[in-house]
Structures are given as C-alpha cells and as structure tokens.
TrEMBL record, chain A:
CDD domains: TM_PBP2 (cd06261)
Signal peptide: none
Coiled coil spans: none
Species: Paenibacillus montaniterrae
Keyword Transmembrane: yes
Pfam families the UniProt entry points to: BPD_transp_1 (PF00528)
Protein name: ABC transporter permease protein YurM
Family statement: Belongs to the binding-protein-dependent transport system permease family.
UniProtKB/TrEMBL annotation, chain B:
CDD domains, per database record: TM_PBP2 (cd06261)
ABC transmembrane type-1 domain segment(s): 66-282
Family: Belongs to the binding-protein-dependent transport system permease family.
Localisation: Cell membrane
Domain of life of the source: Bacteria
UniProt membrane topology term: Multi-pass membrane protein
Protein name (database record): ABC transporter permease protein YurN
Pfam family, one: BPD_transp_1
Membrane-spanning segments: 7-28, 72-91, 103-123, 153-178, 199-223, 256-283
GO cellular component, one term: plasma membrane
SUPFAM superfamilies linked: MetI-like (SSF161098)
Source species of the chain: Paenibacillus montaniterrae
Keywords assigned: Cell membrane, Membrane, Transmembrane, Transmembrane helix, Transport
C-alpha cells in the first residue's frame, strides 16, 4: 500500500511501535517478576527490581496448595465436553441453514442472531430457577447445557458464513454419487470446513476457559470451581500472597498462550472471516 | 413430506438448547421485572413498570451505573478504536516483524477479564504497586494514589486495564479490512499528487466502511456488557463510583435479592444493546442476501 517510505520515517515508525510493544508487555513482565520472588524480597525491594533469586517453588505451591491443579482439571473437563459438542450441534444447524432445501433458512438465521443481543444477565435468574426445577443445579450436565446455549449464536454465524462459500456443485456431485444428506454433511461439508472449525475450536476453547459470570452463578461447589473462580480465591479478604497469586495467574495463562501461539493464524483469519460474514 | 421436516431435524438440537437457555429465560426475566420479589417468597407482588420508574427516578446508583457504561462506550469508541486503527495503519505496511507486533498487541485479548483484573489490581497496589513505585522513582511522590480506592480515578484506572486487554480486537479487524483494499487507488492518487492525509481520508476511510460497522457494533456492545474486570477490580466501589449496569444487576439480584429490580436492570441492558444491534443485524443480513 505504501509506495515509498523514507528511512528517517521508518526509524520513527519502528521506535513508536517498539515503545508501545514494551508498554504492552510490561504488565506480564512484572507479574513474572512477582511470581518468582520470595515474599521477603517482594516487601523489601521495589516491584521493578530484578528478583534476587528465582523462586520456582512458588509455582509448585500455587499448583498444589493453591489447588491450581484442580481448577485447571475442572476447566479442561468442561472445555473438552463443551467445545466439540457445541460445534457439532452448531454445524448441524448451519448445514440445515445452508445446504438443505429450507424455506425458513433466513428467518431462522436471523432468529439465532438475536441471541447475540441478549446479555447473559437477562437470563440468570430464570436459568437458576429452571436448573433447580429439573434438579441440575450445581451439576456438570446443567453447566454444559448453559455453556452450550451461549455458544450457539456465534457458532452458527461463523459456520454458516463458511458453509456458504463451499460450491454447490459439490452437493450435486454427492447427490449423483448417491450420498445421503448426512453423508454429505459428514464426508463433504465437515472436512472442507476444517479452517472454520479450527477457528471456532480456538475461540470456543478460549471463551470457555475464560468464562466467569456463568461459573460465578452456577458453580457453587468448591470442588467444581473453574480457573477464574479459583484465581479470585487467591485474593484474601485482608491480605493476599502476591507471589502465589502471580504464579497462579501465569499458570492459568499458559494453556491459552500455547494455543494462541500455535494457532495465531486462525485467530486472525477467524476474526477477519466474521467480518466478511 | 419428509424433505420438509428434515431441515428441522438438523436444526433441532441447537434450537432446543437456544430456546431453553436464551429465549425463554430472557422473556421470563422481562416478566419478572414487573414484580416485586425476593426470589424465595411464594407470592410475588405485581408492580407494573414501578421497578423501571424507581431505577430512573429514585435509585441513587443506577444513574451512576448507566453513565459509567456510556462513558465506557465513548472511551472505547474513541480510544480503543482509535488506537486499534492507528496500530493497524502502522502494521499494514510491509513491515519487518509485523507478525510479532501484531501478536504482542493482540495477546492480552486472549486473557480472561479476571486475569487482567488481577494483574492490574496488583500494578495499582498503593504501597507496592508498579505505578506508585515508578512515580516515586522519578520523584513524583505527590502524584501517588490509591488508584482504585479514589472515586475520581477508579473508573479510569479500570478502563485503562480494559484498554490494554481489548485493543487487539479492533486492531485485528482493521488489519483485515486494510489488507482487502487494493493498491491501485493509492497509486492513482499518488500520481494525481494527493497528500497522505488525502489518500487516507478519501480512499482508506470510505473503503473501511464495512469494517467500521462491525468494529463500532462490537465495541459498543462490549462496553454495555462489561462485567468481569469491574467486578474483580473494584466490585463497583469505592462508594459505588465504578458500578456498571451488569455489576449493579449482579448485586441487586444475587446479593440483595431484589429480583424485580435486578431483572429490570438486565432489561434496560437488553434494550440498549438492541438499539445498537438491530441496525447492525439488518445491515449484515441484508448484505448476505445479495
């Protein structure tokens, strides 16, 4: 897009970007510094000072005594059930909306989009009553149901957008080869949609891993706490062990960071794809 | 006959869950917003629109919360979107290390609001925190503050953390939008002697229109729904100065058991989000027909 950039402009350009990048990284650097210090070190020296000695044992303490291992396991369990199941359900719906002869396809799609307008807050009390009534309050099936529900509008939007770009000629070829609709879904549409599905897996994993409000309302059992609830438990009412808290924060961030670094391409493509709709 | 039913079968699981989790509960909370109820008593008292009237005329915190959401929205539209666009323009050039920069500016977006809140609460810590320590270091002790405990600053302090977290989203959307603009109009403009500003104003901005539509919509809705970060950094305090609609709804409903009032707050939220989203949904579905 740029035709010519003079070299001084280029230097200024880089300088601005580098300064901003450092500012963006600062909070993480300081969390790391805090996480590897001893409490005495933290109290006696300013936060920006390099740690006198690296105390990796803070991570072990956060993992064991801080129960991070349990919070991670709980959250991972929810992710492993919710994400694939949600995508399957959303893909089936998106398939009906794009590949089957369906008069209601556009009204139904708009109806699903309305869900994006509804803030979770507007559903919490009735959902709580519902779960009580059907005895699923505080159980994993109840939690899956609710998490699945809030993923549906976005999932359908992304998958429908992608399914539409798959050429219709393939459907005709499948028909000639005697493929049923389910066969078409499983053998043609799903495999061809792997880029969109990968994007959705990553977004959904991230959203589920980071979920807070639903967990706060619907998970009361301490042994079922997810990461976000567990992290808040590191903050005491009167005093907080900041070294332990920082170690816990870093542990909780690690899986998301790994997923992010491995699949950065999909994040960007996915967001860009949602623009094109 | 069967072909008519078939699409519904594929749609059924999603539809049932969607109706159960989102549609019926949200309508039911609209119904509840017309009652006075503590959530456990067997009888609810029908009060019509009184809960809404109370919020807008008598409640002392609701106006603060609403104004905080609107300030948050304005701040997001100006600062978050502005910074996102500026960074996208800087990264759009064929720049070395572009992926790295994009990765750095985007990564806070993958963190949870709770993580961001905990990191920044620690940075704002009055005695050991980063901000005050750095101010002391450069000889500005008089500027040190209990940032999150001072009603004048608390909302802005929380917003700064949210800005750090959120700027990646408009950034990535703008980068995608910019990369879809071809080179030709710029070349033509260059040959015609257009200034940089002119090409930006007359070529880039109009061609980014669709991106702006989606960024403005998502930014405004994000600003109305903001919850985790406020709840975890200030809990709406000090003196209710950082309360937003979502957090107020949480406290009214789940702490004070004012189900009617809480439901009314959540429906004020729904209505505001609808005002933003209806034109947006209309625009996108209309576009996808053609």
């Amino acid at each position: 897009m740029e035709l010519r950039i003079s070299s001084t402009r280029k230097v200024v350009h880089y300088a601005v970007l580098i300064i901003l990048a450092i500012l963006f990284l600062l909070p993480l650097v300081f969390i790391f510094f805090t996480a590897v210090k001893s409490n005495a070190d933290l109290a006696s020296k300013p936060i920006y000072a390099f740690p006198a000695k690296i105390h990796w044992e803070n991570f072990v303490k956060a993992w064991d005594q801080g129960k991070m291992s349990m919070y991670m396991k709980n959250t991972l369990f929810i992710c492993l059930v919710k994400v694939p199941l949600g995508i399957l359900i959303e893909a089936l719906a998106a398939f009906a909306l794009t590949r089957l002869k369906f008069r209601w396809s556009i009204p139904m799609f708009s109806f699903f989009l309305i869900g994006m307008m509804i803030p979770m807050q507007a559903t919490l009390v009735p959902l709580n009553m519902l779960l009580n009534a059907i005895h699923l309050k505080g159980t994993y099936p109840g939690i899956f149901l609710i998490y699945l529900g809030f993923g549906i509008p976005f999932g359908i939007m992304i998958l429908r957008g992608f399914f539409r770009t798959i050429p219709k000629e393939l459907d005709e070829a499948a028909l000639i080869d005697g493929c049923s609709d389910m066969g078409k879904f499983l053998r043609i549409i799903l495999p061809l949609s792997m880029p969109a599905i990968a994007t959705l897996i990553i977004f959904d994993f991230m959203a589920t891993w980071n979920e807070f409000l639903l967990a706060q309302i619907f998970i009361s059992d301490q042994s079922m706490r997810t990461i976000t609830l567990g992290l808040l438990a590191f903050r005491g009412d009167w005093s907080t062990d900041y070294t332990l808290m920082s170690a816990a924060v870093l542990i909780s961030v690690l899986p998301v960071m790994i997923v992010y670094l491995l699949f950065q391409k999909y994040f960007v493509n996915g967001l860009a794809g949602s623009v094109k709709g | 006959m069967f072909t008519k039913v078939k699409p519904w079968l594929y749609l059924l699981p999603a539809l049932i869950i969607y109706l159960t989790v989102i549609c019926f509960p949200s309508l039911y909370s609209l119904y509840l917003s017309f009652f006075e109820w503590n959530g456990v008593a067997p009888d609810r008292k029908f009060v019509g629109l009184d809960n809404y009237v109370y919020l807008f005329t008598k409640d002392t915190v609701f106006p603060t919360a609403l104004s905080n959401n609107l300030q948050w929205m304005l701040g997001s539209l100006v600062l978050m979107m502005g910074l996102g666009l500026a960074l996208a323009l800087m990264l759009n050039k064929r720049l070395k290390g572009r992926t790295w920069f994009r990765g750095i500016f985007y990564f806070p977006y993958v963190l949870s609001g709770i993580v961001v809140a905990m990191v920044w609460t620690w940075m704002y810590n009055p005695t050991q925190g980063f901000f005050n320590k750095v101010l002391e270091l450069v000889g500005l002790e008089s500027w040190t503050q209990a940032w999150l405990a001072e009603p004048k600053f608390a909302l802005y302090a929380v917003f700064l953390a949210a800005l750090w977290q959120g700027v990646g989203q408009p950034l990535v959307l703008f980068i995608a939008g910019l990369s879809s603009i071809p080179d030709d109009p710029y070349e033509a403009a260059f040959i015609d002697g257009a200034s940089k500003f002119q090409s930006f104003y007359y070529i880039t901005l109009p061609l980014l229109r669709e991106t702006f539509v989606i960024v403005v919509a998502t930014t405004m809705i994000g600003a109305m729904k903001v919850y985790d970060i406020v709840y975890a950094m200030t809990g709406g305090g000090p003196a209710e100065s950082t309360q937003v609609l979502s957090s107020l709804m949480y406290y009214q409903t789940f702490r004070y058991a004012n189900i009617g009032i809480g439901s009314a707050i959540s429906w004020v939220l729904v209505l505001i989000v609808m005002i933003v989203l209806i034109p947006y949904v209309y625009y996108t579905t209309k576009r996808s027909h053609v």
